[in-house]
Amino acid sequence: MNRTTRVWRAGAVVLAAGLALTACGSDDSSGDGSSSGGDCTEQNLAFLGALTGDAGALGVNMANGIQLAVDEYNEDAECEVGLKKFDSQGSPDKAPALATEIVGDDTIIGLVGPGFSGESLATGKTFFEAGLPSISPSATNVTITEQGWTTWHRVIGNDNAQGAADAKYLTDTVGASKVYVIDDAQDYSKGLATVVKDTLGDTAVGYDEIQVGQTDMSATVTKVTAAKSDAVFYGGYYTEAGLLVKQLRQAGWRGTFMSGDGAEDPAFVKVAGQAGNGAVLSAPAAPAPEDFAAKVKDDTGSEAGLYTTQSYDAANIFLEALKAGNTEPKDINDFIGSYSGDGVSGPISFDDKGDIETSTIYAYMVKDGELDTENPTAIE
Amino acid sequence: MNFSFLVNHIVELSITGLALGAIYALIALGYTMVYGVLQLINFAHSEVFMYGTFAVAWVFVFVHGTTSVNQTLGGTAGLLLLSLLAAMAMSAAIAMLLERVAYRPLLKRKAPRLMALISAIGASFALSELMGLRDRVVGWVGLRDDLDNYVSKARDVYTNPVTIQPQTVFTVGGYGVKDVDIMVIVASLLMMVALDQFVRRTRFGRGIRAVAQDPESAALMGVNATRVIRGTFILGGIMAGAAATLYMVKIGSTRQNAGFIFGVKAFTAAVLGGIGNLRGALLGGLVLGVAENYGAAIFGTQWKDVVAFVLLILILLVRPSGILGESLGKARA
């Protein structure tokens, strides 16, 4: 390279990466008409969860459920209730600042959320110290309710309940006698896989850990086939689950593949292709009943999705507390603690840790290259 | 630790490890050749590979549609050849673009190597994010809906609709060797031999070796260094395109950050074998692929990278310039 450059290039090439900055922060678009009568003070429910970002669709499902409950309540209420939505993008890094904002807002009487386990663990202390009651429609990590945060509740079965049900399904329904347990070493995955492994006892013949982002699973496939296992349980998310089942089938393995709610997504089938057929994916939630789905469509203009029913139920518990004349956070929290009723998602009551007392885990089947999200089987 | 498992399944673990290692090796060639002529690590080479994987999937979606089906290797041979050409063209074009935009302007201005390195890392991020934002990009020109099959869920996994179902060809030590693994290994070896012979025997290959040895003398002897460097990038891109096709045969799914892990592994393979050395890249890739599988078998899959990198450090302690440790310039015809 000793050619001297006599002419400098006139124009510099600029690589502009078009990054659309999505606005984040609070969105109180629905705070309208939160006080109608003269004696009414403004009161709001808050929602904290992902409204944009990778999991934004789930948060929108939740917000729609809450919106429906609030709208139904406001139809014949003396004092109307508003809904303030806080978009955490599902991130444990963004949620704490929003939590501070929520506890600083005196008009907020309760929180539906946080949406995910990570953000729940990151914000639980803030809400607990401020005494603000919360009910999560979707955070399933076992450790959240072990923190002693007495204001924290959830209307969904935790990973212990799911893991125990999954193990039962594998032995009783599938009839598996040799189950190989695999996970991707993340908190959720390891938690779920460990419960399955412990519940299975001697039926779990082997255990392996893969990495998130790993694409070649050949060593793991060799282990599964060498153990002559008739079922695999995988704790993790749909990408690795899809690749794993595909490579197992490519190696000629014929057993039953089961995974949890992290993989219960139509994208699982996209990754796995025809190899996904016969896979069983469990989730602690059932699809919305038809009449409820129609109401959601009517009220919000969007389809009901995963967690819409749980969010509707969670919001209704707060609204019933208001109806019963409770306005102070402490009274509302006591009301929730002793609440017992039937929601759209099933019977709801809480144990002393804030976990739902009875929850049903559902098994979703993959058939003919599609995940059947309509007709799951309840695992008894 | 489970040594008996390794011993009992050594054939299977070796063959699947070799197949993965062969893909590492093909990508490693791009790192090693650019290093040979420029003494520069082209960190954006991982994206050259990633764009190739998308080219393969796009060809399949374009010809076949989005319905997922199972196929044998033989049944898709025609489509595979077509996607191989598409992937090579795509990867070569990206590599050429990189050289033109991220390197040549800096080298012309005699910028320090560090600047070129930063420019490479920047180009790597830009290319990866561009793939992850492809739905927005086609949205700007109003083709978002027409190209929905190619760009929707741009940050999610993108899967080849045709799953290639491996067939057992013959049995060794109780393990049925699969045609896909054989094809991947043989195809990589052929590509390597072709490249090796090209560099050793052709006029252009002589130019590459001359620039690698001494750019100034090469220029005095009438070698056009700019052309040689561009050609080196393109050759590396073609090899990455071949690697991308084999990867899609074996794995079948890609995403906008799929290049990262394979890029790191391929770079490691290049260093392991002796950076700047073509045959070293092959050896490094194969050793790394097999070592990962053995490590996963003995200690558990989560340990495979630890095993691979401990091996790398041990080898570099004994042979600081890699296993074969000789430079591109010293390769003689």
UniProtKB/TrEMBL annotation, chain A:
<dbReference type="InterPro" id="IPR028081">
    <property type="entry name" value="Leu-bd"/>
</dbReference>
<feature type="signal peptide">
    <location>
        <begin position="1"/>
        <end position="25"/>
    </location>
</feature>
<feature type="domain" description="Leucine-binding protein">
    <location>
        <begin position="44"/>
        <end position="369"/>
    </location>
</feature>
<dbReference type="InterPro" id="IPR028082">
    <property type="entry name" value="Peripla_BP_I"/>
</dbReference>
<keyword id="KW-0732">Signal</keyword>
<dbReference type="Pfam" id="PF13458">
    <property type="entry name" value="Peripla_BP_6"/>
</dbReference>
<comment type="similarity">
    <text>Belongs to the leucine-binding protein family.</text>
</comment>
<protein>
    <submittedName>
        <fullName>Branched-chain amino acid ABC transporter substrate-binding protein</fullName>
    </submittedName>
</protein>
From TrEMBL, chain B:
<feature type="transmembrane region" description="Helical">
    <location>
        <begin position="228"/>
        <end position="249"/>
    </location>
</feature>
<feature type="transmembrane region" description="Helical">
    <location>
        <begin position="182"/>
        <end position="199"/>
    </location>
</feature>
<comment type="similarity">
    <text>Belongs to the binding-protein-dependent transport system permease family. LivHM subfamily.</text>
</comment>
<dbReference type="Pfam" id="PF02653">
    <property type="entry name" value="BPD_transp_2"/>
</dbReference>
<keyword id="KW-0472">Membrane</keyword>
<keyword id="KW-0029">Amino-acid transport</keyword>
<dbReference type="GO" id="GO:0005304">
    <property type="term" value="F:L-valine transmembrane transporter activity"/>
</dbReference>
<dbReference type="GO" id="GO:0015188">
    <property type="term" value="F:L-isoleucine transmembrane transporter activity"/>
</dbReference>
<dbReference type="GO" id="GO:0015192">
    <property type="term" value="F:L-phenylalanine transmembrane transporter activity"/>
</dbReference>
<keyword id="KW-0813">Transport</keyword>
<feature type="transmembrane region" description="Helical">
    <location>
        <begin position="48"/>
        <end position="67"/>
    </location>
</feature>
<dbReference type="GO" id="GO:0015808">
    <property type="term" value="P:L-alanine transport"/>
</dbReference>
<feature type="transmembrane region" description="Helical">
    <location>
        <begin position="15"/>
        <end position="36"/>
    </location>
</feature>
<dbReference type="GO" id="GO:0042941">
    <property type="term" value="P:D-alanine transmembrane transport"/>
</dbReference>
<feature type="transmembrane region" description="Helical">
    <location>
        <begin position="255"/>
        <end position="275"/>
    </location>
</feature>
<feature type="transmembrane region" description="Helical">
    <location>
        <begin position="306"/>
        <end position="325"/>
    </location>
</feature>
<dbReference type="InterPro" id="IPR052157">
    <property type="entry name" value="BCAA_transport_permease"/>
</dbReference>
<keyword id="KW-0812">Transmembrane</keyword>
<dbReference type="GO" id="GO:0015190">
    <property type="term" value="F:L-leucine transmembrane transporter activity"/>
</dbReference>
<protein>
    <submittedName>
        <fullName>Branched-chain amino acid ABC transporter permease</fullName>
    </submittedName>
</protein>
<keyword id="KW-1003">Cell membrane</keyword>
<keyword id="KW-1133">Transmembrane helix</keyword>
